[in-house]
Amino acid sequence: MNTVDSEVLLSATGLGYAVRGVEILHAVDIELRRGEILTLIGPNGAGKTSLVRILLGLKEASCGSVHIRPGVQIGYVPQKLHIDPVLPLRVRDFLVTAGRFKQERLLQVLQEVHSAHLLSASVHTLSGGEFQRVLLARALLHQPDVLVLDEPAQGVDIIGQQALYRTIKHIRDRHACGVLMVSHDLHLVMASTDQVVCLNKHICCTGHPDDVSGHPEYLKIFGQAMEGLAPYSHHHDHSHDAHGNVVPLERDNQAVADDR
User: How far is CA 210 from CA 4, 205, 215, 253, in A?
Assistant: First the structure.
């Protein structure tokens, strides 16, 4: 693995991780390049979240090494975040827990995830999809080179998932950042990523979604779950906004152009 490549933002070689003698990860190699969306998939207990936490420096590997290119800024969207329901907290208050930012910057990142209207809303009134977008906006505040998203569409309905994955792609395109994503949403995510790493304590297979979806190891793990399904592809004459409303493609494309 060539970690001196200027396009490689984050990499790991030979990672192993064990807890009380139980092996969680074995000989894992992974590499994230600038402008790439890389998705980790695998069954429950495969070690996906442990791998992410090791890459973020939140856990220490039993063996192997992690290399983050000097100067690389990482933004993280966790799988779950509990906020005490008795705590009065508006979206703007939640965002500034990431640092002292002017309101113009808060609006800027919310606009990027199509949620500027939520600035003064209570975080306790947000839908699952709205809260995920606020978490994504918070991760964007420090202009990350790498976005790490642990199950970003968890608790979001199918229309919201489609819109969220489009937003993630637009962020990647606009900022040329690398995106490392953990997901169980195979039907959608296989059409929303550049590279797939199928993990089951070790790397079973890796590559372009079209290649991985036909790999024997992938089919062994997910074949039954994916029976009758193909990687998702959306070929309608309309799109959907962050709230699930139908938007003509011309308007949707113009909104993307305006974002840029």
Answer: 28, 12, 9, 26
Closest CA to 77 of 47, 45, 116, 49: 49
Element holding 187 (H helix, E strand): helix 186-189
Rounded-to-integer distance, Cα 260 and Cα 249, Å: 17
Q: Give tens-digit pLDDT for 113-157.
A: 999 999 999 999 999 889 999 999 999 999 999 999 998 888 788
- The per-residue pLDDT for 64 is 97
- Name the residue with tokens 């079209």: 210
Round to whole Å and give the CA distance between 103 and 2: 41
Q: Tell me the per-residue pLDDT of 19-41, one tens digit each, with 9 for 90 and over.
A: 999 999 999 999 999 999 999 99
Q: Which structural domain, as residue segments, surrounds residue 202?
A: 34-43+73-259
* Packed helices 103-112 and 128-140: angle between N→C axes, nearest 10 degrees: 120
Tokens representing 189 are 């995510």
Specify the 3-state DSSP secondary structure of 14: strand
How far apart CA 96 and CA 192 sit, in angstroms, is: 30
Closest by Cα among 152, 188, 168, 180 to 78:
152
108 — pLDDT class (breaks 50, 70, 90): very high
Give me the number of domains the chain comprises: 1
The whole-model pTM stands at 0.81
- Rounded to 10 degrees, the C-alpha dihedral 27/199/55/84 comes to -140
Residue 15 in any domain: the answer is no
Q: What is the pLDDT of residues 190-232, one digit of tens each?
A: 778 999 999 999 999 999 888 887 788 878 877 655 454 444 4
Q: What is the CATH number of the domain that holds 167?
A: 3.40.50.300
